Amino acid sequence: METHPIMRPAEMPEEFLKAVYDAGGVACGGFARHLASSNKDSTSKDIDIYPLNKDALRNLIVVFDRISHDSGCGGISDTSLYQEVSAQTAFFQQNERTFKAQIVHMPMYPEEVLSTFDFTVCQAFLDLPRLRVITPQDWKYHEDTRLLRLTNSRRTYLAYRLTKYLDKGYSPNYETIMTFMSGMKMAPHNNDTPTAGELASWLSLVHRCLHNNNDNVSLIDQISVLGQLIDNDCFQGNRLF
Predict the structure, then answer these.
(1) Domain ranges of the chain
(2) For tag attachment on the chain, is the N or C end more exposed, with fewer CB atoms within 10 Å?
(3) Do 229 and 187 contact (CB within 8 A), yes or no?
(4) What class has domain 2-147?
């Protein structure tokens, strides 16, 4: 693992983070990535908090409830499903910025949390006591050059995750796109996944169909359309259009 200095200290909600860390939580993922990112247009107001253990989870729920009510930005949400695990959300304000914070009900150490993330650029967590961000060794090169590469996690891939990072300016190679898409769910109630060959054929059809209407169609548009089709309960591979 490597450590990185915080590039944007002014964007840290210190009061909130101190309460979270005192309760046994750790900020992992996009917010930690943003704090150490060299990209000038990097931005994040979403903070994903992971508890170290079950006691920390109980403490964090109390902290979220208090902070969300004190800030006047709305109370803590009911437990919801976040990337296939339970989560709770609260909103708060600090330094004229509104943050969305989420407790992910998946108690584990941050190094374990990173292994569950889909892209290497997401593999970061905030070491608040030392004011550093911790990542795997390849993180800085991928983040600095905006390379979008998959990790070895076995999570279910969702189309919006890929388009989200394409929209941020990250560049996946062909292998990353096809591996990602072959792992996407066919539908909410169907665990079958298409093969890479099927996806290549479908993506080609999507590409040709969109180009008939717009010569400047982007890769984001193509993947977004294909992702919507794959996530559709009524989708049948032989009835793409």
Answers:
(1) 2-147, 159-239
(2) C
(3) no
(4) alpha beta
The 10s digit of each residue's pLDDT in 105-120 is 888 899 999 998 989 9
Summarised one tens digit per residue, pLDDT across range 151-191 is 887 766 666 677 778 778 888 876 777 676 666 654 344 44
- Among the listed residues 76, 134, 75, 81, the one whose alpha carbon sits nearest the alpha carbon of residue 105: 81
Q: Which alpha helices (H) appear in the chain, and where do they start and end? A: 14-22, 30-36, 54-71, 110-114, 139-145, 159-167, 174-182, 196-213, 219-230
**Vertex 26, ends 176 and 15: CA angle to 5°?**
125
Counting every residue written for the chain, the total comes to 241
d(CA 134, CA 9): 15
Distance CA 58, CA 76 (A): 14
pTM (2 d.p.): 0.72
Q: Angle 174-182/159-167 helices, nearest 10 degrees? A: 150
Backbone angles phi, psi at 29, to 5 degrees: 100, -140
Three-state SS at 9: helix
Distance CA 47, CA 91 (A): 10
Q: Report d(CA 95, CA 11) in Å as an integer.
A: 9
How far is it, in rounded angstroms, from Cα 8 to Cα 219?
A: 31
Q: Looking at residue 128, what DSSP letter applies?
A: G
* Residue 80, H or E segment: strand 80-82
Amino acid identity of 2? E
The residue behind tokens 């983070």 is: 17
Question: Are 89 and 76 within 8 A, CB to CB?
Answer: yes
